[in-house]
């Protein structure tokens, strides 16, 4: 019982002291109003975001800037490579034209040489020409015979052994056999 009386007295003291503190304080307004804060503070874009979100956004911004920089570098490298490729293509086209001109010159020179050689065989005595033709490979000899004037070719064939003359005649006759007649 004494214990119960002590608890009751302690509770009463607390109520009495707590009530006086509660009565001494001014009640807080339920909602903030313009009268309480007449000059509103400017709200920054980051005022409502937590610090972690700000750090993440800044990190993303840095990453995007790095990517943009890398893309600009790649674009520059691609443009430089494209210029080098165009220069190489131009050099290749020039080399191709030079090669074609050289080939045409070589073909002309070879044709001129063959023409001179044909003239030489036509100027030789038929027996001497026949002796040279007898030593030539048949396909090579047939090529020369085809270029000679018919009278010179006939005289050379007459100076060859019959088997050689027949072989060269067969090559000459079959040389254009596979050409389309359309």
TrEMBL record:
Domain of life: Bacteria
Coiled coil, from the record: 64-102
Residues of the signal peptide: 1-24
Keyword Coiled coil recorded: yes
Keywords tagged on the record: Coiled coil, Signal
Name of the featured protein: Magnesium transporter MgtE intracellular domain-containing protein
Species for this entry: Pararhodobacter oceanensis
């Amino acid at each position: 019982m004494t214990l119960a009386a002590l608890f009751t007295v302690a509770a009463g003291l607390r109520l009495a002291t707590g009530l006086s503190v509660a009565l001494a304080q001014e009640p807080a307004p339920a909602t903030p109003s313009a009268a309480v804060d007449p000059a509103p503070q400017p709200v920054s874009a980051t005022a409502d975001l937590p610090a972690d979100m700000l750090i993440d956004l800044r990190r993303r911004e840095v990453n995007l800037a790095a990517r943009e920089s890398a893309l600009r570098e790649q674009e520059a490298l691609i443009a430089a490579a494209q210029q080098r490729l165009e220069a190489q293509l131009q050099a290749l086209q020039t080399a191709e034209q030079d090669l074609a001109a050289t080939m045409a010159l070589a073909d002309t020179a070879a044709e001129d040489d063959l023409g001179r050689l044909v003239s030489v065989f036509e100027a030789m005595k038929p027996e001497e020409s026949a002796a040279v033709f007898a030593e030539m490979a048949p396909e090579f000899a047939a090529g020369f015979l085809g270029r000679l004037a018919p009278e010179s070719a006939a005289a050379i064939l007459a100076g060859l052994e019959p088997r050689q003359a027949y072989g060269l005649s067969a090559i000459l006759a079959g040389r254009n056999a596979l050409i389309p007649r359309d």
